[in-house]
Design brief:
Enzyme class: oxidoreductase
CATH superfamily of the largest domain: Medium-chain alcohol dehydrogenases, catalytic domain
Number of domains: 2
Catalytic activity: 2-deoxy-scyllo-inosamine + NAD(+) = 3-amino-2,3-dideoxy-scyllo-inosose + NADH + H(+); 2-deoxy-scyllo-inosamine + NADP(+) = 3-amino-2,3-dideoxy-scyllo-inosose + NADPH + H(+)
Helix content: 25-40%
Oligomer: single chain
Cofactor: Zn(2+)
CATH topology of the largest domain: Quinone Oxidoreductase, Chain A, domain 1
CATH class of the largest domain: Alpha Beta
CATH architecture of the largest domain: Alpha-Beta Complex
Organism: Embleya hyalina
Bound molecules: zinc ion
Distance between the termini: 14 Å
Number of strands: 18
Family: Belongs to the zinc-containing alcohol dehydrogenase family. DOIA dehydrogenase subfamily.
């Protein structure tokens, strides 16, 4: 089978690789679509120079084989099912996994291709193999929607750790792909209102078209949207934590979802957090229950219009290079590969 390997900045090869062998508790998935996330952009542009590397962790496809130990078990996908797949290793043994926080598994992540090339998903390929418990059925949803299983699971994790409840007033800082998924999920979960905050007028206009109740530049947000119960920060810019806290009503929560540059520091008054019972929650990655939720929501079709609007372009695997080039340029929502 073919698999895409980034060998140097802006260099992508399609290599031949044996089709993975299916163990007793695995499923083999013929890849239908794979999304380009921030990690792929960093590897391609050389801001995260790890070479050679086989990226691609947002994968959906059709199950073509099921291991004998798990075939037919309730909840396990069958041959022919469309699934979205979790490619994180969750050891189940470390302190994080034992506490039910497998998003933070301490086991080093990632495997390798047959020739030793580092795999960070290796999802720009014809097949992937995963444990059956890491393949989640998405029913009759389009394959492009199923390929958003991983980012939507991250957003479900974000909503869960942020304590989002129906009736909450929600603001989302950053109207890129992840901000828009937060908008879609918060509306789905019954938020009273969802506002999006960004510096790009174009992105704000697109967020309004996608159903945002209000949009604003960072400077105008307090005036436009008023006090909030949950503020999701999907764009880790300097000052974002401070503005998110200033938007919170009493008892509000700030969720730090997007990565911040390591050198960014924040000046926060502990008394503000104390007196107003504010919470600041860090969110990174996702866990199996978030996958279950994301796959079910995708399968329900209730977010179909939201997910459709987030597909910027789709390229066949043979043109994976062009997909990397487009995704490396801002602004895109999701560039998909496959088909
Ligand atoms: Zn991702
Ligand atoms: Zn672990």
């Amino acid at each position: 089978m073919r698999v895409a390997v980034v060998t140097a900045p802006e260099q992508v090869d399609l290599r031949e690789e044996p089709v993975p062998e299916v163990g007793p508790d695995d499923v083999l998935v013929r890849v239908g679509r794979t999304g380009m996330c921030t990690m792929e952009r960093r590897l391609y542009l050389g801001t995260k120079p790890i070479y050679p590397v086989a990226p691609g962790h947002e994968v959906a496809g059709e199950v073509v084989a099921v291991g004998r130990a798990v075939a037919g078990l309730p909840g396990v996908a069958a041959v022919g099912d469309t699934v979205t797949v979790d490619l994180l290793t969750r050891c189940g043994t470390c302190t994080s996994c034992r506490r039910g926080r497998s998003a933070l598994c301490k086991q080093p992540q990632g495997g390798a291709l047959a020739d030793g090339t580092i795999s960070m998903g290796a999802g720009f390929a014809e097949f992937v193999k995963v444990k059956a418990l890491q393949a989640f059925r998405t029913g009759s949803a389009p394959i492009a929607h199923a390929a958003m299983g991983e980012p939507l699971a991250c957003v479900a994790h974000s909503a869960r750790l942020g304590g989002l409840r129906a009736g909450d007033r929600v603001a989302v800082i950053g109207a890129g792909f992840m901000g828009r998924l937060h908008l879609a999920l918060a509306r789905f979960k019954g938020a009273a209102s969802v506002g999006l905050i960004d510096i790009s007028e174009e992105r704000l206009a697109e967020a309004r078209a996608a159903g945002a109740d209000w949009t604003s530049t960072p400077e105008q947000a307090a005036e436009t949207g008023g006090r909030q119960d949950v503020v999701f920060v999907t764009a880790g810019a300097p000052g974002a934590l401070e503005s998110a806290l200033s938007l919170c009503d009493d008892g509000g929560t700030v969720v730090l979802f997007g990565a911040f540059p390591k050198e960014v520091l924040a000046e926060v008054g502990p008394d503000l957090i104390h007196h107003h019972e504010l919470s600041v929650v860090g969110v990174y990655s996702q866990e199996p229950r978030d996958w279950t939720e994301a796959a079910a929501i995708i399968g329900s079709g209730r977010l179909a219009a939201d997910l459709d609007a987030l597909v910027t372009a789709t390229y066949p695997l043979a043109d994976v290079d062009a997909a990397f080039r487009l995704a490396a340029k801002s602004p895109v929502y999701r560039v998909l590969v496959g088909g």
